[in-house]
Amino acid sequence: MTSTQQWIDQGLTTVAGTYGRYPLVAVRGEGCRLIDNDGKQYLDFLAGVAVNNLGHCHPAVVAAIREQAGTLIHCSNFYHIPTQIELSRLLCESSFGNRVFFCNSGAEANEAALKLARKWSGDKFGPQRHEIISATASFHGRTLATVSATGQEKVQAGFAPLLPGFKHVAFGDIEALRQAVGPNTCAVMLEPIQGEGGIRIPPPGYLKAVRELCNDHQLLLILDEIQTGLGRTGTLFAYQQEDIEPDVMTLAKALGGGVPIGAMVARDPYSDVLGSGTHGSTFGGNPLATAAAIAAFNELNNPELLHQCRATGTFFMAQLEQLKGRHPLILGVRGRGLMIGVELGCEGAPIVNKALERGLLINCTAGNVLRFVPPLIVSHAEISQLIDILDSIFSEHNAGVTTA
């Protein structure tokens, strides 16, 4: 058997060093648990970074993958693909959309949305109307266009010159957005809740005001629901809690139940803008990924599961608030559904490392915000276990204890 250290050493030699990896070699997953190469179990409150909304290896998704893998894994988008057609129908019937473009990731879905916005506006108003406004602290992907749309200097560093035609304004500040709109603006692109930016929730009425502003200026409203979508916030899509509909929505992460797939959902009249030859993806919407996504979507689009997410999120937030009362290190708790952040008065990385040693998987965003995005099936007992682990870590931190 290959040892954990052997796997790590080999990976450091042959795999691109684009991630700061923890010394964990993952080999198996079950529900809310991840198992490493040595058989140690971890309580997984990161869920593949909000991908495993149904937990690891959900039986319905596994069965769909197995069946489809024995039938047809890939063919070209030159042909009609039944599972792709069925998934597009499910997404459109459950949202505002009329058509769906399929790709392989969230960044690709956002690329498609940016291209759609510029092409629609260029066709209607001329090429000078190409500017897209997004938010500071946003995150939209790692391609050059989505890095340009992302409002974080640390993500953009080293990749100049970025694509022209992007502006960034403070998230949640409708007046700043109004001031930023000009004659060259064609679209506004926002996350309903910022994930990588530190689980930042806009003030009530903000997204509705953005929708009205876009209507007034004939701007496309693009909502990046890659992290918030598919049940994460307690409704199928986060925009459904804001009494609005976007023109374009991007999805990925939880859509395939762990299998890579992205989607851009658009409503008429924008849904026909990207016609034949204007965009594409070799693997986008392939039979295997869309079969997995159908199975995942049918499980996630379940009123009982969505109600459970909201109720469990309320319980989780209450437990974290109690923890905050015991530990002044915790500055605040915020979230919606099972997308929750805890702001600390210190760097979060040491807390994440200590949690890993104790068998708990979490991560830190924005430097000092612990992010919790567990599977939507997480139990109260598992949440209580997390609280106990964090309680001990914070107690040691307060006492100045440095050992695990």
N-to-C span: 28 Å
Output the CATH topology of the largest domain: Aspartate Aminotransferase, domain 2
The SSE string, one letter per element, is: HEEEHHHEHEHHEHEHEEEHHEEHEEEH
Major pleated sheet: 7 strands, mixed
CATH domain class name of the largest domain: Alpha Beta
- CATH level-four homologous superfamily name of the largest domain: Type I PLP-dependent aspartate aminotransferase-like (Major domain)
List the strand order in the largest sheet: 4-10-9-8-7-5-6
Enzyme class: transferase
Protein name: Acetylornithine aminotransferase
Subunit structure: Homodimer.
Keywords: Amino-acid biosynthesis, Aminotransferase, Arginine biosynthesis, Cytoplasm, Pyridoxal phosphate, Pyruvate, Transferase
Question: What descriptive keywords fit this protein?
Answer:
404 residues, alpha/beta, Aspartate Aminotransferase, domain 1, Aspartate Aminotransferase, domain 2, seven-stranded mixed β-sheet, four-stranded mixed β-sheet
